[in-house]
Design a protein that fits this description.
Blueprint: H1 25-37, E1 51-55, H2 63-77, E2 82-86, H3 95-107, E3 111-116, H4 121-134, E4 140-144, H5 149-155, H6 157-167, E5 172-175, H7 178-186, E6 194-196, H8 212-218, E7 224-228, H9 237-247, E8 255-259, E9 273-277, H10 281-290, E10 293-296, H11 305-313, E11 317-320, E12 329-332, H12 337-350, H13 366-374
C-alpha cells in the first residue's frame, strides 16, 4: 500500500480501501463540487423531524457510546423520533449492508447525526458513507470526538484528503474542542460550518445504588479517588499508578477505583487499586459521586465527558492540561506523575468545597443540538 493510502478495516486484505462501496477521493471530490455549485439538485422531504444517530453504543461504556445513547434518550423524551444505527464492532455485516441501511433511512426522511472518533480510517469512511447517503435525504451533521484526531489528520496527505472530501457532505460539523476545529479549518472547511460544542449532556437526577464490590472495598479505603478509562497508552494509567504509589506514603489507606474495560487490564494490580470493570453509565456516575476525587490522567483528549459529569456531581477533578478543561478543574502537567501527585495532595489537603450538585457546568450540548437539528 502506497504512502497516504487508506486501509479499510471492512475490506479484505489487499482490497482497495475506497472501492467498490466507497468512491475514490477524486470522484467524490467531483461530486462535492457539483453539489456545492448546484444546491437545487438536493432532494428535500417535508416530513416531521426524525434523527438517525450513527455511532457506537455500549458495551463498552466509552465517551462516544455513552453520549450517543444519552442523546437518543433525551431526544425521545423531547418527543423527537430517534434511532441509533450501531457501528460498534460486529454490529454491521459489511460496507454494503451499512450503505443499504443508510439509504433506507435517508429515503424515508431521516436526518443523520454521525459520531466518529476521527483518529482512524474506518471512522472517516463511516462518515463518508453517511454523508453520501445524506445527500439524497434531509442532510447530515457530523461530530468528531477524539483528541487524537488532529495528530492523525496532520500525519499524512491521504488522510487529509479523505477528511476534506467527507466534510464537504455535511452542513454542520461539531468539534468537541478547539484543536479539532483548528485542524478542520486548516483543511479549508468553512468557518461557518464548524462549531465547537462539548459533548456533555445532563446527568440523571437520581443515581442507582453503588455496586456491591465497590461498597465493600471502599469501607477499607480513604480517601477514594476514581477514574474512568480504557487500558490504552493515551489514558495514562501507568502515570496514575505512579502518582497513587507516591500518595500512599502519606495516605496509606488511599484507594483508587478504575472503571472501564477490564479485559485488557494489567495483571497483578495491588489491592488498593480496584479495577471494577465496565459499569453501566448510571453506576459509573454513582461511583464518581461517592468518591473524594476524580482523575483524568490522559496524554491526549477530546473534551472528556467524564470530567464535566464529575463537576456536575460535585466531585473535585484533577486532570491533565493536554486540552482546555472546564472551570473548576485542577490541572496538572501532562505526563508528569509527580505533578499529578502534588495536585491530588493539594486538593485533598485544602478540602476544595464541592460545587452544588444541581449546578451543571458550561457546555450542555442538548439545547444547541436541538437548534441545529431544526435547521436541517
Amino acid at each position: 500500500m502506497s504512502r497516504g493510502a487508506v486501509k479499510d478495516s471492512f475490506a479484505p486484505d489487499g482490497a482497495n480501501a475506497l472501492s467498490p462501496i466507497f468512491p475514490r477521493p477524486l470522484a467524490v471530490a467531483t461530486l462535492c463540487r457539483l453539489y456545492a455549485a448546484e444546491p437545487e439538485i438536493r432532494i428535500t422531504f417535508n416530513y416531521m423531524l426524525k434523527i438517525l444517530l450513527v455511532g457506537p453504543i455500549p458495551p463498552p461504556h466509552g465517551g462516544v457510546s455513552v453520549h450517543v445513547v444519552t442523546l437518543q434518550s433525551l431526544l425521545l423524551k423531547a418527543g423527537i423520533p430517534c434511532r441509533v444505527l450501531n457501528i460498534s464492532p460486529g454490529a454491521i455485516r459489511g460496507p454494503l449492508h451499512f450503505m443499504i441501511l443508510l439509504l433506507r433511512h435517508s429515503l424515508k426522511g431521516w436526518s443523520f447525526h454521525v459520531h466518529i472518533n476521527g483518529h482512524n480510517a474506518k471512522s472517516w469512511l463511516v462518515a463518508l458513507a453517511a454523508g453520501l447517503a445524506g445527500v439524497i435525504g434531509r442532510g447530515a451533521m457530523l461530530t468528531i470526538h477524539s483528541g487524537m484526531s488532529p495528530a492523525y489528520l496532520n500525519d499524512r496527505r491521504g488522510r487529509q484528503l479523505l477528511a476534506w472530501t467527507t466534510c464537504r457532505f455535511y452542513r454542520q460539523i461539531i468539534a468537541v474542542n478547539s484543536e479539532i476545529k483548528y485542524v478542520l479549518r486548516s483543511l479549508s472547511v468553512p468557518e461557518a460550518r464548524v462549531e465547537i460544542l462539548p459533548a456533555f449532556l445532563p446527568t440523571p437526577a437520581a443515581l442507582p445504588e453503588l455496586p456491591a464490590d465497590f461498597t465493600s472495598w471502599s469501607r477499607a479505603h480513604h480517601p477514594v479517588i476514581a477514574t474512568a478509562l480504557f487500558f490504552r497508552p493515551e489514558y495514562g494509567f501507568d502515570l496514575l499508578v505512579a502518582a497513587v504509589s507516591e500518595l500512599r506514603k502519606k495516605h496509606p489507606r488511599l484507594g483508587c477505583v478504575v472503571m472501564g474495560d477490564s479485559e485488557s487490564r494489567p495483571a497483578g494490580l495491588p489491592q488498593h487499586m480496584l479495577a471494577i470493570g465496565d459499569l453501566a453509565h448510571e453506576s459509573c456516575l454513582a461511583v464518581v459521586a461517592r468518591s473524594d476525587l476524580f482523575i483524568r490522567a490522559t496524554l491526549s483528549d477530546g473534551d472528556a465527558i467524564s470530567v464535566r459529569e464529575a463537576i456536575a456531581l460535585g466531585t473535585p477533578v484533577v486532570a491533565s492540561d493536554v486540552v482546555s478543561r472546564p472551570a473548576g478543574t485542577v490541572c496538572f502537567r501532562t505526563g508528569d506523575a509527580s505533578d499529578l501527585a502534588e495536585k491530588i495532595e493539594s486538593v485533598l489537603a485544602e478540602g476544595v468545597p464541592h460545587p452544588a450538585v444541581s449546578s451543571q457546568p458550561e457546555g450542555n450540548a442538548i439545547q444547541r443540538l436541538l437548534e441545529l437539528y431544526g435547521t436541517q
